[in-house]
Amino acid sequence: MDTNNNNTNNNRGEFSFDDDLFKWTGKGGLKKRIPGKADRVGNILWKLADSNNYIYHFEIEYLVDKIKKKEKISTPIGEEILNRTVKILNEISSIKNRPFTCMIIDAGLLGSIQNMKTLSKNNYFFIISVASNRTGDVFQQFINQNKRKTNFEVGEIKYGQNGQCTAIAWQCKKNKTFYVLTNIPEPILKEKENELKRVSNSKAKKNQYEKKFITTPRVIWLYNNCHNYVDSSKMVINPQRNNQRARTYQRVVFNDCFYILLYNCWVSVNLFLTPNAKPLLFREFLLYICNSQLFSSPPRVSRNSIHCPKLISDRAC
Question: What superkingdom heads the lineage (predicted)?
Fold first, then answer.
Protein backbone atom coordinates (compact mmCIF):
# COMPACT_ATOMS: atom_id res chain seq x y z
CA MET A 1 0.00 0.00 0.00
CA ASP A 2 2.65 2.54 1.08
CA THR A 3 5.56 2.20 -1.34
CA ASN A 4 7.13 5.57 -0.48
CA ASN A 5 7.46 5.26 3.28
CA ASN A 6 11.07 6.12 4.19
CA ASN A 7 10.63 6.69 7.90
CA THR A 8 14.14 6.69 9.34
CA ASN A 9 12.84 6.66 12.92
CA ASN A 10 11.61 3.11 12.50
CA ASN A 11 14.49 0.70 11.92
CA ARG A 12 13.06 -2.38 13.58
CA GLY A 13 12.40 -5.40 11.45
CA GLU A 14 9.44 -7.09 13.12
CA PHE A 15 6.03 -6.98 11.44
CA SER A 16 2.76 -8.41 12.65
CA PHE A 17 0.44 -9.76 9.95
CA ASP A 18 -3.01 -10.52 11.31
CA ASP A 19 -6.69 -10.26 10.45
CA ASP A 20 -8.92 -7.47 11.70
CA LEU A 21 -12.70 -7.34 11.62
CA PHE A 22 -14.09 -3.89 10.77
CA LYS A 23 -17.67 -3.54 11.90
CA TRP A 24 -19.86 -3.14 8.82
CA THR A 25 -23.63 -2.74 8.71
CA GLY A 26 -24.13 -2.46 4.95
CA LYS A 27 -25.64 -4.98 2.57
CA GLY A 28 -23.82 -7.16 0.09
CA GLY A 29 -21.16 -9.83 -0.27
CA LEU A 30 -18.49 -8.04 1.76
CA LYS A 31 -20.17 -8.89 5.04
CA LYS A 32 -18.76 -11.86 6.92
CA ARG A 33 -19.88 -13.34 10.22
CA ILE A 34 -17.29 -14.57 12.73
CA PRO A 35 -18.87 -15.49 16.10
CA GLY A 36 -15.53 -15.44 17.91
CA LYS A 37 -14.86 -11.78 17.15
CA ALA A 38 -16.14 -8.95 19.33
CA ASP A 39 -17.94 -7.22 16.44
CA ARG A 40 -19.08 -10.54 14.88
CA VAL A 41 -20.05 -9.10 11.47
CA GLY A 42 -17.88 -6.95 9.22
CA ASN A 43 -15.08 -6.72 6.67
CA ILE A 44 -12.05 -8.96 7.14
CA LEU A 45 -8.90 -6.90 6.54
CA TRP A 46 -5.46 -8.51 6.75
CA LYS A 47 -3.16 -5.79 8.05
CA LEU A 48 0.63 -5.59 8.25
CA ALA A 49 1.76 -3.37 11.15
CA ASP A 50 5.09 -2.60 12.83
CA SER A 51 6.10 -1.73 16.39
CA ASN A 52 4.84 1.85 15.95
CA ASN A 53 1.45 0.44 14.89
CA TYR A 54 1.98 1.94 11.42
CA ILE A 55 -0.02 -0.07 8.88
CA TYR A 56 2.22 -0.70 5.88
CA HIS A 57 -0.25 -2.71 3.87
CA PHE A 58 -3.66 -4.33 4.09
CA GLU A 59 -5.68 -6.76 1.99
CA ILE A 60 -9.47 -7.10 1.96
CA GLU A 61 -10.22 -10.81 2.09
CA TYR A 62 -13.46 -10.67 0.11
CA LEU A 63 -11.94 -8.59 -2.71
CA VAL A 64 -8.91 -10.90 -2.97
CA ASP A 65 -11.29 -13.85 -3.27
CA LYS A 66 -13.26 -11.98 -5.93
CA ILE A 67 -10.08 -11.28 -7.93
CA LYS A 68 -9.11 -14.95 -7.67
CA LYS A 69 -12.41 -16.03 -9.21
CA LYS A 70 -12.31 -13.38 -11.93
CA GLU A 71 -8.73 -14.18 -12.98
CA LYS A 72 -9.19 -17.94 -12.36
CA ILE A 73 -6.32 -18.16 -9.87
CA SER A 74 -6.14 -21.60 -8.25
CA THR A 75 -3.98 -20.50 -5.30
CA PRO A 76 -5.75 -20.81 -1.90
CA ILE A 77 -6.96 -17.54 -0.43
CA GLY A 78 -4.44 -17.56 2.43
CA GLU A 79 -1.50 -17.98 0.05
CA GLU A 80 -2.80 -15.36 -2.39
CA ILE A 81 -3.13 -12.77 0.41
CA LEU A 82 0.49 -13.34 1.44
CA ASN A 83 1.74 -13.33 -2.18
CA ARG A 84 0.14 -9.94 -2.82
CA THR A 85 1.59 -8.56 0.42
CA VAL A 86 5.13 -9.80 -0.23
CA LYS A 87 5.03 -8.29 -3.72
CA ILE A 88 4.23 -4.87 -2.23
CA LEU A 89 6.85 -5.21 0.52
CA ASN A 90 9.56 -5.87 -2.04
CA GLU A 91 8.82 -2.43 -3.54
CA ILE A 92 9.27 -0.51 -0.25
CA SER A 93 12.84 0.76 -0.12
CA SER A 94 12.86 1.33 3.65
CA ILE A 95 12.13 -2.37 4.18
CA LYS A 96 14.54 -3.67 1.54
CA ASN A 97 17.41 -1.69 3.12
CA ARG A 98 16.92 -3.18 6.59
CA PRO A 99 19.43 -5.75 7.82
CA PHE A 100 16.60 -8.17 8.57
CA THR A 101 12.81 -8.32 8.35
CA CYS A 102 10.78 -10.80 10.38
CA MET A 103 7.11 -11.53 9.71
CA ILE A 104 5.04 -12.66 12.71
CA ILE A 105 1.80 -14.35 11.62
CA ASP A 106 -0.88 -15.37 14.09
CA ALA A 107 -2.61 -18.76 13.91
CA GLY A 108 -5.23 -18.86 11.20
CA LEU A 109 -5.64 -18.73 7.45
CA LEU A 110 -2.01 -17.91 6.60
CA GLY A 111 -0.36 -20.74 8.54
CA SER A 112 0.77 -23.12 5.78
CA ILE A 113 3.89 -24.78 4.42
CA GLN A 114 3.57 -22.91 1.11
CA ASN A 115 3.52 -19.53 2.87
CA MET A 116 6.63 -20.60 4.77
CA LYS A 117 8.36 -21.33 1.45
CA THR A 118 7.21 -17.99 0.00
CA LEU A 119 8.69 -16.00 2.88
CA SER A 120 11.90 -18.03 2.84
CA LYS A 121 12.27 -17.56 -0.93
CA ASN A 122 11.97 -13.78 -0.52
CA ASN A 123 14.62 -13.72 2.25
CA TYR A 124 12.27 -12.96 5.13
CA PHE A 125 12.57 -14.31 8.63
CA PHE A 126 9.24 -15.57 9.91
CA ILE A 127 7.39 -16.85 12.96
CA ILE A 128 4.16 -18.53 11.88
CA SER A 129 1.78 -19.73 14.58
CA VAL A 130 -0.18 -22.80 13.48
CA ALA A 131 -3.66 -23.60 14.78
CA SER A 132 -3.91 -26.89 16.68
CA ASN A 133 -6.53 -28.24 14.24
CA ARG A 134 -4.14 -27.76 11.29
CA THR A 135 -1.04 -29.43 12.67
CA GLY A 136 -1.80 -32.66 10.81
CA ASP A 137 -1.28 -30.93 7.45
CA VAL A 138 1.53 -28.58 8.43
CA PHE A 139 3.63 -30.51 10.96
CA GLN A 140 3.64 -33.98 9.45
CA GLN A 141 6.98 -33.26 7.75
CA PHE A 142 8.68 -32.26 11.00
CA ILE A 143 7.29 -33.83 14.19
CA ASN A 144 6.01 -37.35 14.76
CA GLN A 145 2.23 -37.48 15.21
CA ASN A 146 2.46 -39.20 18.60
CA LYS A 147 4.67 -36.41 19.92
CA ARG A 148 2.24 -33.78 18.61
CA LYS A 149 -0.89 -35.30 20.09
CA THR A 150 0.42 -36.30 23.51
CA ASN A 151 0.37 -33.69 26.26
CA PHE A 152 3.78 -33.52 27.91
CA GLU A 153 5.24 -31.63 30.86
CA VAL A 154 4.64 -27.88 31.06
CA GLY A 155 7.62 -26.10 29.49
CA GLU A 156 8.76 -29.13 27.47
CA ILE A 157 9.63 -28.63 23.80
CA LYS A 158 9.32 -31.02 20.85
CA TYR A 159 10.83 -29.85 17.58
CA GLY A 160 11.90 -30.99 14.15
CA GLN A 161 13.95 -29.37 11.40
CA ASN A 162 14.51 -29.49 7.69
CA GLY A 163 16.70 -27.32 5.51
CA GLN A 164 14.34 -24.34 5.59
CA CYS A 165 12.78 -24.01 9.02
CA THR A 166 12.14 -25.41 12.49
CA ALA A 167 8.76 -26.71 13.66
CA ILE A 168 8.22 -26.38 17.41
CA ALA A 169 5.55 -27.76 19.75
CA TRP A 170 5.82 -26.14 23.18
CA GLN A 171 3.64 -27.04 26.15
CA CYS A 172 2.89 -23.59 27.56
CA LYS A 173 0.10 -24.70 29.94
CA LYS A 174 -1.31 -27.94 31.27
CA ASN A 175 -3.86 -28.37 28.48
CA LYS A 176 -2.45 -26.05 25.82
CA THR A 177 0.29 -26.66 23.26
CA PHE A 178 1.72 -23.85 21.12
CA TYR A 179 2.72 -24.79 17.54
CA VAL A 180 5.00 -22.57 15.49
CA LEU A 181 7.08 -22.60 12.29
CA THR A 182 10.16 -20.37 12.17
CA ASN A 183 13.54 -19.82 10.52
CA ILE A 184 15.03 -17.36 13.04
CA PRO A 185 18.44 -18.24 14.54
CA GLU A 186 18.42 -20.26 17.78
CA PRO A 187 14.62 -20.50 18.11
CA ILE A 188 14.61 -22.93 21.06
CA LEU A 189 17.16 -20.99 23.11
CA LYS A 190 15.72 -20.60 26.62
CA GLU A 191 16.48 -16.99 27.45
CA LYS A 192 13.67 -15.73 29.70
CA GLU A 193 12.00 -17.13 32.79
CA ASN A 194 8.43 -16.12 33.62
CA GLU A 195 6.26 -16.79 36.61
CA LEU A 196 3.62 -19.32 35.61
CA LYS A 197 1.48 -19.48 38.74
CA ARG A 198 1.47 -19.35 42.51
CA VAL A 199 0.51 -22.39 44.57
CA SER A 200 -0.51 -22.12 48.22
CA ASN A 201 1.75 -24.15 50.53
CA SER A 202 -1.08 -25.04 52.85
CA LYS A 203 -4.74 -24.30 53.34
CA ALA A 204 -4.10 -22.82 56.79
CA LYS A 205 -1.50 -20.31 55.58
CA LYS A 206 -3.28 -18.66 52.68
CA ASN A 207 -0.78 -15.80 52.39
CA GLN A 208 2.22 -18.03 51.73
CA TYR A 209 2.76 -19.15 48.15
CA GLU A 210 5.22 -21.22 46.23
CA LYS A 211 6.05 -19.69 42.86
CA LYS A 212 6.09 -21.90 39.77
CA PHE A 213 8.27 -20.71 36.88
CA ILE A 214 8.42 -21.62 33.20
CA THR A 215 11.27 -20.86 30.82
CA THR A 216 10.14 -19.32 27.53
CA PRO A 217 11.98 -20.25 24.29
CA ARG A 218 13.36 -17.38 22.22
CA VAL A 219 10.86 -17.83 19.40
CA ILE A 220 7.90 -17.67 21.82
CA TRP A 221 9.33 -14.61 23.55
CA LEU A 222 9.63 -12.78 20.20
CA TYR A 223 6.16 -13.88 19.15
CA ASN A 224 4.55 -12.66 22.39
CA ASN A 225 6.21 -9.25 22.05
CA CYS A 226 5.38 -8.67 18.39
CA HIS A 227 2.24 -10.51 17.31
CA ASN A 228 -0.22 -7.96 18.74
CA TYR A 229 0.86 -4.91 16.70
CA VAL A 230 -2.30 -5.18 14.60
CA ASP A 231 -4.53 -5.55 17.66
CA SER A 232 -2.94 -2.57 19.42
CA SER A 233 -3.54 -0.39 16.35
CA LYS A 234 -7.27 -0.66 17.15
CA MET A 235 -6.89 0.53 20.73
CA VAL A 236 -6.18 4.22 20.05
CA ILE A 237 -9.76 5.16 19.19
CA ASN A 238 -10.81 5.62 22.80
CA PRO A 239 -8.15 5.42 25.55
CA GLN A 240 -10.84 4.58 28.09
CA ARG A 241 -11.63 1.33 26.24
CA ASN A 242 -8.13 -0.07 25.89
CA ASN A 243 -9.15 -3.10 27.91
CA GLN A 244 -11.69 -3.99 25.22
CA ARG A 245 -11.62 -4.37 21.47
CA ALA A 246 -12.15 -1.04 19.74
CA ARG A 247 -15.04 -1.01 17.30
CA THR A 248 -15.59 1.03 14.17
CA TYR A 249 -18.89 1.14 12.33
CA GLN A 250 -18.74 1.54 8.56
CA ARG A 251 -21.15 1.04 5.68
CA VAL A 252 -18.76 0.77 2.72
CA VAL A 253 -15.29 -0.71 2.53
CA PHE A 254 -13.82 2.57 1.23
CA ASN A 255 -14.50 4.05 4.67
CA ASP A 256 -12.21 1.38 6.10
CA CYS A 257 -9.48 2.38 3.64
CA PHE A 258 -9.93 6.08 4.39
CA TYR A 259 -9.81 5.39 8.13
CA ILE A 260 -6.49 3.52 7.77
CA LEU A 261 -5.01 6.41 5.76
CA LEU A 262 -5.99 8.87 8.50
CA TYR A 263 -4.63 6.53 11.15
CA ASN A 264 -1.27 6.20 9.36
CA CYS A 265 -1.02 9.99 9.04
CA TRP A 266 -1.55 10.30 12.78
CA VAL A 267 1.16 7.70 13.53
CA SER A 268 3.61 9.49 11.20
CA VAL A 269 2.94 12.87 12.83
CA ASN A 270 3.71 11.47 16.28
CA LEU A 271 6.89 9.76 15.07
CA PHE A 272 8.36 13.05 13.85
CA LEU A 273 7.46 15.13 16.92
CA THR A 274 10.32 16.50 19.00
CA PRO A 275 11.15 14.50 22.16
CA ASN A 276 9.70 17.18 24.45
CA ALA A 277 6.49 17.64 22.46
CA LYS A 278 3.21 16.33 23.82
CA PRO A 279 1.92 13.33 21.80
CA LEU A 280 -1.12 14.11 19.69
CA LEU A 281 -4.19 12.05 20.54
CA PHE A 282 -5.99 10.39 17.65
CA ARG A 283 -9.21 12.22 18.52
CA GLU A 284 -7.38 15.56 18.52
CA PHE A 285 -5.87 14.73 15.14
CA LEU A 286 -9.29 13.96 13.65
CA LEU A 287 -10.72 17.18 15.09
CA TYR A 288 -7.83 19.13 13.59
CA ILE A 289 -8.42 17.57 10.16
CA CYS A 290 -12.16 18.29 10.27
CA ASN A 291 -11.56 21.82 11.51
CA SER A 292 -8.99 22.69 8.83
CA GLN A 293 -11.07 21.20 6.02
CA LEU A 294 -14.32 22.88 7.04
CA PHE A 295 -12.78 26.32 7.53
CA SER A 296 -10.70 26.10 4.34
CA SER A 297 -13.86 25.85 2.20
CA PRO A 298 -14.74 29.09 0.35
CA PRO A 299 -17.64 31.04 1.91
CA ARG A 300 -20.97 30.32 0.29
CA VAL A 301 -24.43 31.60 0.99
CA SER A 302 -26.83 28.85 0.06
CA ARG A 303 -28.77 26.04 1.61
CA ASN A 304 -25.75 23.78 0.97
CA SER A 305 -23.20 25.98 2.75
CA ILE A 306 -20.78 24.15 5.03
CA HIS A 307 -21.00 25.22 8.68
CA CYS A 308 -18.43 24.11 11.21
CA PRO A 309 -20.19 22.37 14.11
CA LYS A 310 -19.84 24.17 17.43
CA LEU A 311 -18.38 21.07 19.07
CA ILE A 312 -15.47 20.95 16.61
CA SER A 313 -14.78 24.70 16.57
CA ASP A 314 -14.65 24.82 20.38
CA ARG A 315 -12.49 21.75 20.94
CA ALA A 316 -10.21 21.68 17.89
CA CYS A 317 -6.50 21.94 18.45
Answer: Eukaryota
